[in-house]
Amino acid sequence: MALQQNVNRIQTTHVGSLPRPKSVLDLMKRRVAGESVDEAAWEALVRTEVAAMVQKQVDLGLDIVSDGEVSKPGFFSYVQDRLEGFESRPDVKINWWPKETALFPEYYERYFREAMVGGMVARFAPQVCVGPVRYKDRSALDRDIANLKAAVAKSGAAKAFIPAIGTSGIGSNEYYKTEEEYFHAVGAAMSTEYRAIVDAGLLLQVDDPFLPDIFIDDSLDDAGKRRRAQIYIESINAGIKGIPEEKIRFHTCYSINEGPRVSEVQLGDFIEFVLKVNAGSYSFEAANPRHEHDYHVFERVKLPDGKVIAPGMLAHASNIVEHPELIAERLLRYTNLVGRNNVIAGADCGFSSQATYTTEVHPTVLWAKFKALREGADIASRKLW
After folding, report:
1. Number of folded domains in the chain?
2. Strands 248-251 and 308-314, how do they pair?
3. 74 DSSP 8-state letter
4. Alpha carbon distance 158, 57 (integer Å)
């Protein structure tokens, strides 16, 4: 059996980011603001909190754990300190999800102010490529790897993964002649990170929540959308070339947390591109009410042999704790279509994609969700084995 497939029960996992403790946020805020910080104290704090976070995941029954992205200011912004060739432009305003925000401007004005952006430790600043992209500094990556490996050894976790941003999430291009050349340069640079994670004996999760956005981009015709999606996938595959597929997870989602989300595409609109990524498993949203029906996709799409899906069983934008019986029902919908060995119980997205004081799901609720995830997976497992 492939490394990520189930053996005698449904495995449980999540997408990576978890709410950082206030002590971490306070010190991180000072660091990103350029204030003088005792780096030894910072590293010791992160190491301690990663160990605690991994232990909590194990205690609640998660099989495949992460470091919670404790050290990172954001799931994609973290690379600005690891790559060279980019220029930060904090004065440039970001137009978040224009189609969706145009439909509900009053809601999203408040949402960005109070929920998504209001409590962030580091404000978004667009990164623009102005020179050759290279991986310049492995020190933070090496610390992340060492911290997670130490926490896994202490906790006895079965498996662990580190998320790393995909090629589409790093910035925009003003240097390379074509978008294709740019994304491949980013993939080549990020291969340093991808390989280091796998070489350390950990699973690599490639994050690309920007893939679905292509299919609601009105500036592209159908052919343009397909070509841009193909460039994303080809550049990711180039970056992970040579890494065994069974060591790789691929995650995509729909970029918005709590909102109407009526402008989003459905899984069936882009699943063919997801499955082109040379990964052992594929993680996607499936628990929120806009996408729970997407399991029907696998009535017509065949999952390649040996591959695994990790559909979200937990919504990352709701403080309602999913009932274990409902989680079991959701899992059985998928196992009935793709087989019991090929479905991992996951979450829709990260629970703190950005380091923020105002996570949409309260940390105490998050842990209750993880407990329910294990209970629901156990209910489904008893019916399947």
Report:
1. 1
2. unpaired
3. B
4. 11
In a domain, 10, yes or no: no
CA distance 70 to 92: 27
Q: Does a structural domain hold residue 70?
A: yes
Tabulate helix, strand, coil % of the chain (nearest 5). Answer: 45, 15, 40
Give residue 341's pLDDT: 98
Q: How far apart are CA 183 and CA 171, in angstroms?
A: 10
Angle at 349 between CA 359 and CA 97, to 5 degrees: 80
* CA-wise closest residue to 212 among 289, 278, 290, 279: 290
Residue 298 sits in a domain whose CATH number is: 3.20.20.210
Q: List the alpha helices (DSSP H) in the chain.
A: 22-32, 39-59, 98-103, 105-111, 139-155, 179-199, 222-239, 271-274, 324-338, 363-384
Convert the pLDDT of each residue in 39-59 to its tens digit. Answer: 999 999 999 999 999 999 999
Q: Strand 127-135 and strand 83-88: pairing? A: antiparallel
User: Range of 362's domain?
Assistant: 22-384
User: Looking at the whole model, is its pTM more than 0.85?
Assistant: yes
Q: Is 124 part of a structural domain of the chain?
A: yes
- 189 token code pair: 């640079």
- For 100-146, the pLDDT digits (tens) are 999 999 999 888 877 666 678 877 788 999 999 999 999 999 999 99
Is position 1 within any domain? no
Q: In angstroms, rounded to a whole number, what is the distance separating the alpha carbons of residues 143 and 137?
A: 11
